[in-house]
Design a protein that fits this description.
The structure holds four protein chains of four kinds. In chain A, α9 links the parallel β8 and β9. By secondary structure, chain A is of the alpha/beta class. Mean pLDDT of chain A is 86; it is low at 1-5 and 15-23. Chain A has 13 helices and 15 strands. Chain C has one domain: 3-Layer(aba) Sandwich (Rossmann fold), CATH 3.40.50.300. Chain C has ten helices and ten strands. Classes of the chains: A alpha/beta, B mainly alpha, C alpha/beta, D mainly alpha. Chains in contact: A-B, A-D, B-C, B-D, C-D.
Chain lengths: 404, 290, 239, 359
């Protein structure tokens, strides 16, 4: 009896050996094993930008879903998200902890332009992917100099160009007033907008006014824009200040053609507090579906999203577009990992990230996620939409600045 | 020209906001000779309480009064529990405790009520008689509310025995004890008032700047500037200081140095006032017998 | 003990931080009587009064009307009916005369009789009446002394502690103040504990006296005995 | 082992020197025992220690409260970054320049500070801390400061390489030794400055300003000089910080940095030189621990700790060590220690001295 038993074990071992060799081509970098993929991330859970901390929680919830459904090719995702309080010095420290101590495979969706600038050089020196950064600055899509860094959302300058193009088409002799936040996010939008207007920028823009995150409100800035006689308004503000600007414009009876940057285009958390009737006619660009927008109420993609939120992130706010953002970007990185299969080296992760061609259920129809070794801007297409008092109504063509 | 007038009035409206916070700061200074660095965050937290009450369906004015009461009680409790042990400690220890409170209240606001921007209703209907050419209904409404608070405070300190006792305790604690005044309780009442006024300031500010955990961060500094400019031991001075700071800030921002340097304006204002007029425009000359 | 003793002080120690000032003194006060404490600068006279009101760290015992004072808060000692006119008079300089007086009655509940007492004070001190709404800080030294005394009386105290009422006043005013004190004692029967540099005046006013030296009771007895006592005459009366 | 000015004439016992030497050896070997990331964290601890020491000179020793030392840290960092990036100056040369610039600014800030009582100065310095980030983004300075984008610096690589305990002599380790050297220099400077006549004058000004003036101490000059020196220390720390992190941007120097420095000083202990290390370790590692405890309220934990410290250890870690040291001492020495201490430099309990009334 013992002998038979013994032979079985030999056979077992042999079989295991064979199966191992069959899959010999499994290649791993630090942070990936047969059973686990370690992914790092930094988010401002505290400090001035803590409103965006919910993106980190949404991503973690999506990975919970993936793990619950068996992970990716049998590997569970271990997601380590650290707080940097939107302070670049802290980001550097946390990211070094992720890379050198936690030894993650790659850093995914770190948030904030200053934070990402702080680690831009480090990540490329260390050859660790800085994947799908959560900022729209244009400099993240530069494969030649920074092959290990890639953006995700449409970048601010492209969006600025779209608004400029639309103004040139519809209102060539418009007098434009611009309100922008005095930091990298605000200035990137402004640069794209001015490039989009070309040499007419100097004549058409009658007034450019900035505000500080520490200002109590933007009433004074809105008054000087109205005072400058602008009949078109490009509003580059974060949610709180966007709501103030919309409400103040109505209060002082200033009714320009109002272009609102996508960052603050959520019906639930911006237009409702500002007053839906004050927001009629506002134009923005969209690439994702707004969760509070009634027109997507019975859209399959959004219903899956709501079901996922209820199950994995019940404390999350259904009105907050950031949670849709987190869902979408997490889905993209899961796709990349699926494409990597068993070759989980950092180099392969970047290679797969650079040949994506997919669509997201929470993205607008016609918007795709497309990259190539030379195009490190996954989402570039956007479509203009006008607010009719209840929902965003898409109109016009889908702008595709990259032309592919 | 019309824009210029608009700027002045919007400056006055902002001035109201700074004035009401300055009033709360003066309340605590009068009672305890300390500047409460946590005043802004306490006001934000009270405003969140009011918001939560209104969400649960309470009518505005009931929520308003309830928050006023809760904030008063909270102010008293804070003094009794947290500040009494350091009552006799030097200024630095107190400053540290205030900053500890600031961090706690800011974190609590974010933790309990999360960070999304919330609209806060204004008690003054938009089309009511209060709406004038330059002031929105809410702006003139909050101006009147602040005036009412100022008068109520003036009457309280002038005519009620508790008010008199508080003034005595603030001025000469030892003599106050000799006439039987429980000085420590007077400090607690001072904190109660400051918390209640802070709550009121928060409820007046929220409709125009929208409610989120960092609502008061910027405003607090302007509140300090107003209190110091106006005279930190004089409630009327604080409010007038607020109006001056509001208008000055708007005009300089719009016409002189641009909006990028608003905080620098506050810095110059504070340092300038403190060095040239230490007791502010309307404050009493503080003569300390050596 | 002929009359009931209002205040019994036994082995009273007092200290400011590390420096010990009173080294265990004993004395007693008869109700309705005026007692004075004499002594050079630094003998511990003011500290004794502050010790009774628990304004300094004390140990030992001080029974007032059967209640133990040591360990009570100053505000509670005052509520038992002990009024204290502190050195430097402790006037609320930024408040008006009227407000100062009304503060004196802060702990009293009989609001109506307080108003009567107020008018009585103005009658007894007409000069205060004239300056009723004037800021207390603007009053002269003598007037502030009168204000301090009347503020203490507004409490309707059982015991009035007086800390060098003659301090910084012209002799004419001092005699008038002492005349008023005599009047208060005889008319209202208020017992007093008088701390005074001017030994001569104090002994004339007081019934009993104690002489403090470096925080200890050196000599005690009736005023007449102390006046006759050789050492007291030489060092304190300058005779 | 900084004790109080009065007791500096005691020759430190033999074992203190041995402990010092051991500590030094440990400090030298340390970077090779741990991974690069930890070394990077130790560098930051040393940088914060210098910054806290700077603040302590002003607030701990001299009693002037500052909520704005983050501003001097920022100015030092930007001075170094601009010198390195625009002028191409070697990183080690930028430290004296940053220190000098901050000394000048601190000295100038000292003058208005002369007229300000405790909480007024706190408000003025708070305004400074809030204004600096905005000034750094100002468009006319943008050419130098890189405006909102900040400046990315090159991390200096080690002049020579060798391997010890099979760890390469990486840039971080080289920076560790560079920072350690600067830290030792700064602490020795502070030690000499504060232990002698100057230190006693500062404490005299803090405890009894009027008496100090009466003793002939030129108050305005001393207070302004102290402000300058304190700002210089924090400025040098800022420059070092810029070199270690190799990136500066306006968002790195918000008001929270000033609050962190204040908390670090209080934790370490007021008027204590070596306390700066405990404070630095506290503000470097506690946020990470708090982050693990609860994602959404690390600041609340910080606030609670700050208040608790004010009750339990008003004199900070070093104060407690000193008290334990005094209690542990054999009777005779302890008596002499207590006798030597004039009153106490512990700010909390000295209060009763000022209330003395004329008997």
């Amino acid at each position: 009896m013992k002998f038979k038993h013994f032979s079985l074990t030999i056979a077992g071992v042999a079989a295991a050996a064979i199966s191992l060799s069959a899959l010999a081509q499994k290649k791993y970098d630090t942070g990936a094993t047969d059973t686990e993929i370690k992914i790092g991330d930094t988010k401002p859970y505290s400090g001035p930008a803590s409103a965006y901390g919910t993106i980190g929680k949404a991503i973690a919830a999506y990975f919970d879903k993936i793990n619950a459904e068996g992970g990716i090719n049998g590997r569970k995702i271990k997601f380590i998200s650290l707080d940097d309080g939107y302070n670049p010095a802290k980001t550097v420290e946390q990211v070094r902890k992720l890379v050198e101590e936690d030894e993650v495979l790659f850093v995914f969706n770190p948030l904030g332009t200053p934070s990402n600038t702080a680690i831009h050089k480090y990540m490329n020196q260390k050859k660790v992917p800085q994947l799908f950064v959560a900022t729209g600055a244009t400099k993240w899509g530069n494969p030649k100099e920074y092959p290990w860094t890639m953006g995700w959302q449409p970048n601010y300058q492209t969006e600025g160009k779209i608004y400029a193009a639309h103004i040139l088409e519809t209102k060539p002799n418009a007098k434009i007033g611009v309100l922008y936040q005095n930091d990298d996010y605000g200035k990137d939008y402004l640069k794209g907008f001015e490039d989009g207007l070309g040499d007419k920028a100097k004549t058409m823009i009658v007034s450019k006014v900035s505000y500080e995150v520490t200002d109590p409100n933007v009433d004074s800035q809105m008054l000087s824009l109205k005072g400058a006689g602008a009949d078109t308004f490009f509003n580059i503000t974060t949610p709180k200040f966007a709501a103030q600007a919309i409400k103040k414009a109505a209060e002082i009876g200033w009714k320009p053609t109002h272009y609102l940057n996508n960052v603050s285009a959520s019906v639930g958390s911006v237009l409702t507090p500002a007053g839906l009737d004050n927001s009629v006619g506002i134009i923005t660009t969209q690439y994702g579906k707004d969760p509070t927008d009634p027109q997507w109420a019975n859209d399959k993609g959004m219903q899956d999203w709501k079901a996922w939120m209820a199950k994995y992130y019940p404390s999350g706010d259904l009105k907050d577009a950031s949670n849709v953002y987190g869902y979408g970007v997490a889905m993209t990185v899961v796709q990349v990992l699926k494409q990597c299969g068993d070759n989980l080296t950092r180099e392969n992760v970047m290679k797969q990230a650079a040949n994506l061609d997919m669509t997201l259920p929470t993205a607008l129809p016609g918007i795709n996620v497309k990259t190539s070794p030379t195009d490190f801007y996954p989402i570039e297409r956007e479509q203009l939409a006008r607010f009719d008092g209840k929902t965003w109504v898409l109109f016009g063509k889908v702008y595709d600045p990259a032309g592919n | 020209m019309e824009a210029f007038v608009h700027q002045i009035f919007s400056g006055l409206a902002n001035g109201c906001i700074y004035g009401s916070i300055a009033l709360a700061l003066v309340m605590i200074y009068q009672a305890t000779h300390h500047l409460n660095f946590a005043q802004g965050e306490m006001a934000t937290f009270s405003t969140f309480i009011a918001w939560a009450l209104i969400q649960r369906g309470l009518p505005y004015w009931l929520a308003f009064l309830l928050t006023f009461g809760i904030s008063f009680a909270a102010g008293v409790l804070i003094q009794r529990i947290i500040l009494r042990p350091v009552e006799k400690a030097p200024v630095l220890t107190n400053v540290n405790v205030f900053i500890g409170l600031l961090l706690i209240f800011n974190a609590l606001s974010g933790w309990i009520f999360d960070h999304t921007v919330k609209a806060f209703p204004s008690p003054f209907p938009q089309e009511s008689a209060l709406k004038t050419a330059y002031f929105s209904a809410h702006e003139s409404g909050s101006f009147l509310v602040m005036l009412a608070v100022l008068l109520a405070l003036y009457a309280f300190f002038r005519f009620t025995p508790v008010g008199l006792a508080m003034r005595a305790a603030a001025q000469n604690p030892e003599s106050a004890r000799l006439v039987g005044i429980r000085v420590s309780w007077m400090l607690a009442v001072g904190w109660g008032f400051a918390a209640a006024i802070g709550a009121l300031a928060g409820m007046m500010v929220a409709p125009s700047v929208f409610l989120d955990p960092n609502m008061m961060a910027g405003i607090l500094l302007y509140g300090f500037a107003s209190a110091l400019l106006g005279g930190v031991d004089n409630p009327w001075g604080a409010v007038l200081g607020g109006l001056i700071v509001g208008v000055l800030e708007n005009l300089l921002g719009a016409y002189v140095i641009g909006t990028e340097l608003k905080l620098t304006v506050a810095l110059v204002l504070i340092v300038g006032t403190l060095t040239l007029m230490p007791s502010g425009l309307f404050g009493k000359r503080v003569v300390t017998r050596v | 003990m002929p009359e009931a003793s209002l205040l019994e002080v036994k082995n009273l120690h007092a200290a400011y931080g590390a420096t010990q000032v009173l080294h265990g003194i004993d004395f007693g006060l008869q109700s309705g009587r005026i007692t004075t404490i004499l002594g050079a600068n630094g003998a511990g006279k003011t500290t004794t009064l502050r010790a009774i009101c628990q304004m300094v760290r004390t140990s030992g015992s001080a029974l007032f009307d059967g209640q133990q004072l040591v360990g009570k808060a100053t505000e509670e000692v005052v509520r038992l009916g002990v009024a204290h006119v502190p050195d430097g008079r402790g006037t609320f300089t930024a408040l008006s005369v009227d407000e100062n007086l009304r503060l004196g009655a802060h702990v009293r509940r009989d609001k109506q009789r307080v108003v009567e007492d107020l008018e009585r004070m103005y009658a007894r001190f007409p000069r205060l009446g004239e300056r009723r709404h004037q800021q207390a800080g603007t009053l002269s030294g003598g007037e502030q002394q009168m204000l301090a005394i009347s503020r203490a009386l507004m409490l309707r105290p059982k015991l009035l502690l007086l800390d060098e009422p003659s301090f910084g006043l012209a002799p004419k005013i001092v005699t008038e103040i002492f005349r008023i004190l005599r009047g208060i004692n005889t008319d209202d029967g208020v017992s007093m504990l008088l701390v005074e540099q001017n030994a001569q005046l104090a002994l004339e006013l007081a019934d009993r006296a104690y002489l403090l030296e470096t925080g200890r009771v050196a000599v005690s007895g009736t005023s007449r005995e102390l006046m006759a006592n050789e050492s007291v005459r030489r060092s304190y009366l300058g005779v | 082992m900084s004790a109080l000015p009065g007791s500096h004439d005691q020759r430190p016992a033999k074992w203190v020197w041995i402990a010092g030497a051991l500590l030094l050896v440990a400090a030298l070997v340390l970077p090779f025992l741990v991974k690069n990331y930890r070394v990077f964290q130790f560098n930051l601890v040393l940088v914060y220690a210098i910054a806290i020491l700077g603040l302590n000179i002003l607030t701990g020793f001299n009693g002037q409260i500052s909520l704005g030392h983050g501003a001097f840290y920022a100015i030092g960092a930007y001075a170094a970054a601009v010198l390195m990036d625009r002028v191409g100056m070697p990183y080690w040369l930028t430290l004296p320049f940053s220190g000098a610039l901050c000394f000048l600014l601190g000295f100038l800030m000292g003058f208005p500070a002369l007229r300000l009582a405790g909480h007024y100065l706190a408000v003025a310095t708070l305004a400074l801390a809030l204004a600096i980030p905005q000034l750094l983004k100002y468009k006319h300075l943008e050419h130098y400061t890189g405006g909102v984008q900040g400046i990315v610096l090159v991390k200096p690589d080690p002049p020579f390489t060798f391997r010890l305990l099979d760890q390469p002599f990486s840039a971080d380790r080289w920076l560790y030794f560079f920072t350690l050297a600067v830290t030792i220099v700064m602490f020795v400077l502070a030690w000499n400055l504060l232990r002698g006549r100057v230190g006693r004058a500062l404490i005299a000004i803090r405890d009894h300003p009027i008496a100090a003036a009466a003793m002939g101490i030129n108050l305005p000059m001393f207070k302004s000089l102290t402000f300058g020196v304190s700002a210089a220390f924090t400025g040098v720390a800022g420059a070092l910080g810029a070199v270690v992190i190799a990136f500066v941007s306006p968002d790195s120097f918000t008001v929270t940095l000033s609050i962190f420095l204040l908390v670090g000083m209080v934790v370490g202990g007021l008027a204590s030189i070596t306390g700066a290390f405990f404070g630095a370790i506290f503000i470097q590692f506690v946020p990470n621990i708090a982050d693990e405890l609860s994602k959404s309220a690390p600041a609340a934990i910080y606030g609670v700790l700050l208040i608790m410290l004010m009750y339990l250890m008003p004199t900070g870690v070093m104060g407690m060590v000193r008290r334990l040291w005094a209690r542990w001492q054999p009777g005779a020495r302890r008596a002499r220690m207590r006798g030597v201490q004039p009153g106490s430099s512990v700010p909390v309990s000295h209060d009763h001295l000022t209330k003395e009334s004329a008997t």
